[in-house]
From TrEMBL:
<protein>
    <submittedName>
        <fullName>Uncharacterized protein</fullName>
    </submittedName>
</protein>
């Protein structure tokens, strides 16, 4: 499935993000993203993109390159949005017309199209130019997307702007043990942000 456009909006009454994307074959997928799911996507994708850059850069340089690429995407989006086209609604809805609530999400790096797990990874892995993101849907269904780095960054940029609009606080990476790093979402609420 080749993604054509991404679209998202914060829906105040639901306190959720309505995330939509369409494909080249005019299919549209609609999902509800909760605060927990959104913050996890943001922290996990940043962690994984930085981990990928650490293959060729020191950890500090990898973080700096990741931030530079994010800033470059923001500037490119400003230019691209000057003559932007409207979101094109799909004509097919494989998951149904109504949005489905994402129950859980996982993100991972890929190599040769396969998800890289701790069991099958090593320091010398040459990762693909894509991240795998799995949305767990009601009833145990799973929607998997393999997003190229630039599309994953664009999605995260959009979700981050909506996170700020919603006043959801920030996601931070929590480190468990010295050798094991897991993207666990802890919200850091600012003094002025309302509690829900």
């Amino acid at each position: 499935m080749a993604i054509k456009q991404l679209n998202a909006s914060y829906v105040v009454n639901e306190d959720r993000i309505l995330f939509r994307f369409n494909t080249q074959d005019q299919a549209e997928y609609r999902l509800w993203l909760t605060r927990r799911v959104t913050l996890f996507i943001l922290v996990a994708s940043t962690h994984l993109l930085t981990k990928k850059l650490e293959q060729v850069h020191s950890p500090d340089t990898a973080k700096a390159v990741n931030e530079f690429e994010k800033a470059a995407l923001i500037e490119a989006a400003k230019t691209a949005n000057a003559g932007s086209t409207d979101y094109e609604s799909g004509v097919q809805f494989p998951l149904g017309f109504d949005p489905l609530l994402v129950m859980d999400v996982s993100c991972s790096l890929t190599k040769n199209g396969e998800k890289v797990t701790d069991e099958n990874s090593s320091k010398a892995v040459d990762f693909d130019d894509a991240l795998s993101i799995d949305f767990l849907l009601p009833g145990g269904a799973n929607l998997n997307l393999n997003l190229p780095n630039n599309l994953m960054r664009a999605m995260c940029l959009l979700l981050d702007q909506l996170r700020i609009q919603a006043g959801w606080g920030e996601a931070v990476l929590s480190i468990k043990k010295d050798v094991e790093i897991e993207p666990v979402v802890d919200e850091v609420l600012k003094k002025n942000s309302p509690l829900h």
